[in-house]
Write a structure and sequence with these properties.
By secondary structure, this protein is α+β, with helices and mostly antiparallel strands. It has 2 domains: about 140 residues, Jelly Rolls; about 70 residues, Arc Repressor Mutant, subunit A, CATH 1.10.10. The chain is built from 8 helices and 10 strands. β9 and β10 form a beta hairpin. α3 packs across α4, α5 crosses α8 and α6 crosses α7. The protein is elongated and about 65 Å long. The model has no long low-confidence stretch (mean pLDDT about 90).
């Protein structure tokens, strides 16, 4: 089975399109914490992730980070395809959160398939539209939702059913697009209310029910 089968949106490609992809694509492995792309860099390949997780984040002029989205196995990188379609350089940064493996489709092949294959265009623009909706949700949350509610939701999400979350205040600030000081104050308030217990780089959840009630406020 080829790597194409790992991407449901590519399953309808014809024989010649599949052959073109298999002939010209290459696989790449990157170690955890590797910066895969960054602002000002030109995208030369569309990346399709086979294994691992890649975090895409924006760095503001004042040095604040905000996580835009994550690319997981079986997904393509929206930022890369957007830049390739618009002939623009990257405006964000992509970092491997885990060891990762990806397929790289050269720009020339990408352009050819977008122009000639309706199925490939559908694959690209479906991923594009899905990420756009996610980014609108991020903007809405940052602009309008209370930080205590957002932080409670994020802690529940990151805990994944466990009682421990291994993240620094700075990393949580990047997840929520706010300042580290804001996160520190809010976590101190959560601790005062006996919702959590803090130690260096670790948050222990003491009251899941309380967090769930706050997150649904």
């Amino acid at each position: 089975m080829s790597w194409i089968e790992q991407f449901p949106g590519l399953s309808s490609l014809g024989t010649s399109e599949r052959a073109l992809l298999m002939m010209h694509s290459s696989t790449m492995r990157v170690a955890k914490n590797t910066v895969i792309f960054g602002p000002g860099k030109t995208p030369d390949n569309l990346l399709l992730l086979l294994e691992g997780v890649v975090r895409v984040q924006q760095l503001t002029e004042n040095g604040r980070e905000i996580v835009l989205y994550r690319v997981r196995a079986g997904e393509s990188c929206f930022m890369t395809s957007a830049c390739m379609l618009a002939f623009e350089n990257y405006s964000a940064q992509g970092i491997a959160e885990t060891d990762a493996q990806a397929v790289a489709i050269p720009l020339k092949v990408f352009d050819q398939l977008v122009g000639e294959s309706a199925d490939f265009r559908h694959f690209v623009f479906t991923a594009y539209s899905t990420r756009i909706v996610e980014l609108f949700h991020v903007i809405e949350d940052v602009a309008f939702q209370r930080i205590d509610v957002r932080l409670a939701e994020k802690i529940i999400e990151l805990a994944q059913g466990d009682t421990l979350v291994h993240l620094t205040h700075q990393q949580l600030a990047a997840e929520l697009g706010t300042a580290r000081e804001v996160i520190s104050r809010q976590l101190s308030e959560f601790q005062r209310r006996d919702l959590i217990k803090q130690s260096r780089g670790v948050i222990e959840i003491l009251d899941f029910a309380g967090f769930e009630q706050l997150a649904s406020a």
